[in-house]
Amino acid sequence: MNFINKSILLTFITFIVGCLATEVQLGMKLLVLSTSFPDSIIKSLQSYSIEYDYLEYNYKNPLKGDLPLYTEDNQPKYYGVVLGNGDLTVYFEDTGLWNSILTSKQWDYLYEYQKKYGVRIVALDDTPSINFGTSIFDPSIWGVSSTQEMVMADNDVAKSIFNEAGVKSTATLDTRGLYHVPGKIENDKIATPIITLKPNEEIKEESVVAAYIKNDDGERLSFYIAFGDWSINSVMLNHLWISWVTRSLYAGERRVTFTPHIDDVFLSTGLLNYETNELESTYNSYRSTVEDFEILKNWQETVVNKLPEGSSIKCEIAFNGNGVLAVINPAIALQVDGERYCDIEYVKVPGKGVSRWPEGNYTLSYDKEFLENDSLFAYFDKEENSKNFFWSSHTFTHENLDEATTFDVENEIKTNIEMAKLLNIYDKPYYSGKSIVTPQISGLRNADALNVFKKYGIESGTGDLSRPTLINQENPYLPFFTTMESSNYEGFPIIPRTPTEVYYTSSTVEENTYIYNLIYEDEIGESTWERFINNEVDRTLNLMVSLRNEAHQFHQINLRSHDLEEKESLLQKWSNAVLEKYTKFVNWPVTSLKLDDQAQLYLDRYNRITYCDIEKSAVIEGDYVTAIKISPKSIEKDCKIPITLPQNAYKNKNESKIAFEKRGKDRLVAWVSFEKGDSEAKTIKLNPPLAWATNAEAIEEEEEKVCWSEELGYRCCNNGESIVEYIDESGWWGVTKDTKEWCGIIKNKKCWAEDFGLPCCESDKLDYILENGVIGYEEKYENDATRPAGGWCGIKSAADLVNSNAQELFKEQLNL
Ligand SMILES: *[C@@H]1O[C@H](CO)[C@@H](O)[C@H](O)[C@H]1NC(C)=O
Ligand SMILES: *[C@@H]1O[C@H](CO)[C@@H](O)[C@H](O)[C@H]1NC(C)=O
Ligand SMILES: *[C@@H]1O[C@H](CO)[C@@H](O)[C@H](O)[C@H]1NC(C)=O
User: Fold this and answer.
1) What is the separation, in whole angstroms, between the first and last Cα of the chain?
2) Which residue has the least CA distance to atom 14 on ligand 2?
3) pLDDT for res 282
4) pLDDT on residue 805
5) Residue of 233, 255, 254, 241 whose CA lies nearest to 30
6) What is the DSSP string of 543-579?
7) Is 656 a pocket residue for ligand 3 (Cβ < 6 Å)?
8) Which pLDDT score is estimated for 279?
9) Ligand 2 pocket test target in 373, 374, 422 with most atoms within 8 Å of CB
10) Is the CB of 329 inside a 6 Å radius of any atom of ligand 2?
11) Residues contacting residue 722 through CB under 8 Å, at least 6 positions apart
């Protein structure tokens, strides 16, 4: 009897715990299957730089045999599967019927793989099906193209999918322009709604557009809607399934940047004359003031409070030194014609061109004292002011460089470097000397200019989304490299940037709206500022949530604020509107990058994709992924690759090639560096192991015990010794039981209070809280003799405060 019971129990355990093979290395690639090219999927995977294999099957190209799911040495290649269009249905010309391009035997082979390795399947553009517990909401209508609002379903599965992706339920999503087949749940034992559709004219009741399905084969996420790479709604849905299918474990990263660029700083810009629609010259021009920059600095500091933790915002100043001279005395400023007289795509013949500079080998013959006659120069030559912004050169006079000779370009570059030195910014970490924003995106087809750039250490230039010929068309997340054809120069990288519709002549809302209407009224009718800003927010938000890293172009005149009623510049208004909507959509931190780092981001991405062939696999033991194995196959150039981790990892201090990056509450990213020729594999151990099998329970992170006091000649405290007796800059100290010597306390992060001889508070709802916010009181334990301090207890959530600030907090209470 006893024996039988036990064996039944054992079988049961084996079924639950042992449903995955003992140790497997599962390739960290996604398999994308579709019957036609799925732009939206591919773009989104590119945006994370997640690796995938795309296999396309259709009537002309059916699958022969089984899907290629294993490597040559029989290792499983994929840790997730994405179906571009549900059942992969195509029209069979021979039978005149619509059917799946895969046979049921081929599907079974896939489902067997799904089950064996705990792999999740995502089906986009799917059709509700009773096989998966759902059905079409109204078979007489079938699918619709009309717009319906999409809302997160009210259940724990839906919440956890949104949560995992960092997508907020306040994101306003709809089906605009996307054909969809409203569904309903038929069998709630296997299907759960994830996103519902609000009723509209056509579908008069609530229906389901995304469902989670859990059946004997495993888990599936189905979307009953088509996807388009132009649609922000598709982009948002992509984030949901990417996090879900990878379980936030992927060889890639999700990085949002937001960097306003301010061109033409120090120059003055003529204001618009509404009567002539022309720009006024010196008589009526605007030049941003010290006060404008102070307002901007304050804005930078406060705007982050509204952004997700880990965010930081800093504007880039692209400056023209000649503006300093012009303000002190127009007569000493260089008079160089800045206009473009050639076609925008003009390719200059090297050695030819036009020289506009009045003198050669020009040097600035002014000292700091003299230049401080300009109050803006005087403000910025103080580090306390310049360091609040990023800085880069926009050339000295703002000459268009398309036709410029070597002579002119050299003057433009060298003289502005001299000005940067006088400003005391040239060697500062916030200065970018390796990249440039050229005036009017010029000079990038001028080999002489590119050679001068290289001579002065400038290794990349800034492009513009309105110049498609200078953009990487295959992958917008990568730089464009010049060619002999484009520029008579091979391989100069151009980093994209986006032009805003805040114009280089606009200092106020009225001026900008006026010009916007001059440009767009014929096309879209008259616009108010509100309409203008909504259009801009939509355009920019789409780029941001698509993880596009383009900086945003503004000009010095857009900083005007000090003499306006609201003391708020166009740049601020525009950025506030964009960031406000961004925070309604996602909770990912957003950061600004200086020009050099911006360029490096694109170049790093390019290098790792192009020159580093590295196999990444998830090591599965039982039902859990315990580690990531990173095995270089061929490293042709130094590179580093990001591995985003669902939670924490064991950090081996001896391992100098793996650096960890964490921004706010965002996922931890391990950056693994390789040098040319490296072949040694690296392993990252997950802490805790990631529950991978369908029914595996999540486990808690194990506290990492690093004995910090050993290197100071003291062992660490054992259990029972870890009571704080002394605190210094090295850490918390206890006393050993046997020899009464100092020992280093390994902090108890789950319950810091135990290290101070206190119990932890059971909940955060306390009867009383001490002023320092770390110690609370639970009345119910007032007379509990087993507690050393009656009702007093340590508030668990104050752990960070205690760990960084313990001495201050406990000085009085503990006589430390
Ligand atoms: C600039 O100076 C260099 C060396 O000092 C000289 O070789 C060159 O001819 C000069 N160029 C001009 C245009 O004066
Ligand atoms: C600028 O300042 C210098 C002092 O360094 C002074 O001698 C000079 O007159 C000033 N020039 C102008 C144009 O204000
Ligand atoms: C780290 O390096 C030290 C000295 O080389 C060695 O004694 C120690 O075992 C290493 N630790 C790990 C975790 O590899």
Assistant:
1) 62
2) 373
3) 63
4) 80
5) 241
6) HHHTT---EEEEEGGGG--TTSTT---HHHHHHHHHH
7) no
8) 73
9) 373
10) yes
11) 734, 745, 746, 748, 754, 755
Q: Which tokens sit at 149?
A: 């609002």
Q: Is 456 in the pocket of ligand 2 (CB under 6 A)?
A: no
Q: Which of 106, 115, 15, 98 is nearest to 692 (CA)?
A: 115
CA angle, 93 as apex, 90 and 94 as ends, to 5°? 125
What distance lies between CA 548 and its chain's CA centroid?
A: 8
Q: Where are the alpha helices (DSSP H) in 437-528?
A: 447-455, 484-487, 509-524
Ligand 3: centre distance to CA 720 (Å): 27
How many angstroms separate the alpha carbon of residue 410 from the centre of ligand 1? 11
Reported as a single tens digit per residue, the pLDDT across 695-753 is 899 998 887 778 899 999 999 999 889 888 888 888 899 999 989 999 999 988 788 88
**Helices assigned H by DSSP within 456-508:** 484-487
Kindly report whether the peptide bond that precedes residue 499 is cis, defined as omega within 30 degrees of 0: no
CA of 360 to the centre of ligand 1 (A): 7
Residues facing residue 220 across a β-bridge:
121, 213
Tell which wins on pLDDT, 200 or 766. Answer: 200
Report the atom number in ligand 3 closest to the C-alpha of 652: 13
Residue 577 Cβ inside 6 Å of ligand 2? The answer reads no
Q: Provide the sign of the torsion angle of the four alpha carbons 775, 779, 783, 785, taken in this order.
A: negative
Phi, psi of 579 (to 5 degrees): -70, -35
At the top level of CATH, the class of 256-591 is alpha beta
Residues of the chain with CATH 3.20.20.370: 256-591
Q: In this structure, which amino acid lies at residue 260?
A: P
> Where in the chain are all domains bearing CATH 3.40.50.880?
24-246
- What phi and psi values does residue 725 have, to the nearest 5 degrees? -115, -20
Distance of CA 72 to the CA centre of its chain: 35
Return the ligand number nearest the Cα of 652: 3
CA 153 to chain centre: 26
For the CA of 654, the closest atom of ligand 3 is 1
| Cα of 407 from ligand 1 centre, angstroms | 9
Instruction: Give the residue whose CA is nearest to atom 14 of ligand 3.
Output: 654
Alpha-carbon distance of 84 to 38, in angstroms, equals: 6
Tokens of 665: 């509450």
Ligand nearest to the Cα of 408, by number: 1
Residue nearest to atom 14 of ligand 1 (CA): 360
Contact 355, 405 (CB under 8 A): yes
Cβ burial 357-392 (10 Å sphere, 16+ → b, else e): beeeebebebeeebbbebebbbbbbeeebbbbbbbb
Neighbours of 95 (CB within 10 A): 8
Q: Where are the beta strands (DSSP E) in 242-295?
A: 256-257, 260-265, 269-270, 272-273, 278-279, 285-286
Q: Distance from the CA of 453 to the center of ligand 1, in angstroms? A: 18
Q: How far apart are CA 156 and CA 194, in angstroms?
A: 9
Enter the pTM of the model.
0.87
CA torsion 734→737→738→742, rounded to 10°? Answer: 10
For residue 374, which ligand has an atom nearest its CA? 2
Nearest residue (CA) to ligand 3, atom 11 = 654
Give the bridge partners for 213, in sequence order.
Answer: 191, 220
d(CA 761, CA 777): 8
Which tokens go with 383? 């580090």
Contact 388, 297 (CB under 8 A): yes
Q: How far apart are CA 284 and CA 10, in angstroms?
A: 87
Helices (H) and strands (E) in the chain, counts: 18, 43
CA gap 274, 271 in Å, rounded: 9
Phi and psi at residue 803, to the nearest 5°: -65, -35
Structurally, at CATH architecture level, domain 24-246 sits in 3-Layer(aba) Sandwich (3.40)
User: Is it the case that residue 562 has pLDDT exceeding 60?
Assistant: yes
Q: What is the pLDDT of residues 33-47, one digit of tens each?
A: 999 999 999 999 999
Percent pLDDT > 90 in the chain is: 82
Give 462's strand partners: 495
pLDDT at 272 over 90: no
